[in-house]
């Protein structure tokens, strides 16, 4: 059992690495969704102001 504290520390460190990676991945996904929403709003604005549209 002498190795248990180190094993536990390694496990905690790995969980922290995974959490950090998940956070970054989530942030990138959110940024992509924000860009898609902005593009969609831009497209809607153009179609609403185009001649020949009923708005």
Description of the structure:
By secondary structure, this protein is an all-alpha fold. The protein contains one helix and no strands. It has one helix spanning 4-49. The longest helix is centred in the middle third of the chain and has 46 residues, at 4-49.
Q: What attributes does this structure have?
A:
single chain; mainly alpha; 55 residues; rod-shaped
Produce the secondary structure layout:
Layout (H helix, E strand, L loop, with lengths): L3 H46 L6
Structural class: mainly alpha
Helix content: over 70%
What would you call the shape?
rod-shaped
| Major beta sheet summary | none
What is the arithmetic mean of pLDDT? 87
Determine the N-to-C terminus distance.
Answer: 73 Å
Gyration radius over CA: 24 Å
Secondary structure tally: strands = 0
> Can you write the helix and strand succession as a string?
H
| Structure annotation, total helices | 1
Which stretches are poorly predicted, pLDDT < 50 over at least 5 residues? Answer: none
Strand content: under 5%
